Amino acid sequence: MAQPQIVMYEEEFNQIQSVCEKLVRDANAIVVFIVDKNGQLIATAGEYENLDTTSLASLTAGNIAATGGMAKVLKENEFATQFHEGEHQNVHIQIVGQRVILVVIFDERSSLGLVRLRVRKANQALNTIFEKLIEKANDPNLSSPLEEITDDDIDNLFND
Q1: Are strands 41-46 and 31-36 parallel, antiparallel or unpaired?
Q2: Rounded to two decimals, what is the model's pTM?
Q3: Structural contact between residues 45 and 21, judged by C-beta atoms closer than 8 angstroms
Q4: CA distance 4 to 84
Q5: Could you say which DSSP state residue 156 is in?
Q6: Domains in the chain, please, with CATH?
Q7: How many CB atoms lie within 10 A of CB 62?
Q8: Over the stretch 39-88, which tens digit does the pLDDT of each residue have?
Q9: Which value, to the nearest 10 degrees, does the dihedral of the CA atoms of residues 130, 133, 137, 140 take?
Q10: How far apart are CA 14 and CA 8, in angstroms?
Q11: Pairwise CA distance, residues 93 & 35, whole Å
């Protein structure tokens, strides 16, 4: 079953961004990014200027979907962690809270052991942030920031 979309509030986005920046430093990674399971990039930290992050986000989500299919065939829930070793760079992928994907790209300046250790801590922090986001989304007393947008606002946006 697909999970409902949640609205990202500035406070939680800043917290997610902070976790990514800390993970880049603590794991000595090249880049860290968070992607939703639909392939939408949520946050990025590190040296990403020369990377096609949009393509990487989409390919990562596709990779997770494909391994999810393998997991079902093997009667597993999902494969929460993946590792791809390259000649010069490595990719560590972790599903966070069955909702988003944490991607860490690193090279010989780091090690898989260090990355896995730091990802475990980041995973806990991100889970807490996303749980709060879900609580906010389910709070009947909290109005959605999208409620104030009217059809006229949308029409005017595309008329410019």
Answers
A1: antiparallel
A2: 0.82
A3: yes
A4: 30
A5: H
A6: 10-159 (3.30.450.30)
A7: 11
A8: 999 999 999 888 899 999 999 999 999 999 999 999 998 899 999 999 99
A9: 130
A10: 10
A11: 10
